[in-house]
Amino acid sequence: MVYKQWGYGNSESTQTFPIKFTNSVIGIYGSKRAINYEYTFAATSITNTNFFMSTRNAEGNSRVIACNWLAIGQ
């Protein structure tokens, strides 16, 4: 069975899933809420309980930006 969880937080921080995924995380998708910034969303250090959310610009620099995220897992 596939489950979805979602949340909101600031980039450059660890995000904890509301409920632990039993088996694995299939993917995490995000969008930044700041319209005026050209930054991409990235999820790293993914476990069944949390992940690290970050944003990067074209030069690879980070900036704390509010983001929405959606996680899909089993």
Protein model, in words:
This protein has 74 residues and is mainly beta. The protein has one domain (3-73): Immunoglobulin-like (Sandwich), CATH 2.60.40. The chain has no helices and 6 strands. A hairpin with a 5-residue loop joins strand 4 (40-44) and strand 5 (50-56). It is elongated, with a radius of gyration of 12 Å. The chain starts with a strand and ends with a strand. The relative contact order is 0.43.
Please provide a brief summary of the model.
This protein has one domain (3-73): Sandwich (Immunoglobulin-like).
List keywords for this structure.
74 residues, mainly beta, Immunoglobulin-like, 3-stranded antiparallel sheet, 6 strands, 0% helix
Task: Describe the secondary structure blueprint for this structure.
Blueprint lengths: L2 E8 L2 E4 L8 E8 L7 E5 L5 E7 L9 E8 L1
Antiparallel strand pairs: 1-6, 2-5, 3-6, 4-5
Named CATH topology: Immunoglobulin-like
Number of helices: 0
Strand content: over 45%
Low-pLDDT runs of 5+ residues are none
The biggest beta sheet, please?
3 strands, antiparallel
Q: What gap, in angstroms, lies between the N and C termini?
A: 6 Å
| Mean of residue pLDDT values | 91
Helix content: under 10%
- N to C succession of SSEs: EEEEEE
Q: What is the overall silhouette?
A: elongated
> What is the number of independent domains?
1
Oligomer: single chain
What is the CATH C level class, in words?
Answer: Mainly Beta
Using the CA coordinates, give the radius of gyration.
12 Å
Write out the strand line-up for the largest beta sheet, numbering strands in chain order.
1-6-3
CATH architectural arrangement: Sandwich
Secondary structure class reads mainly beta
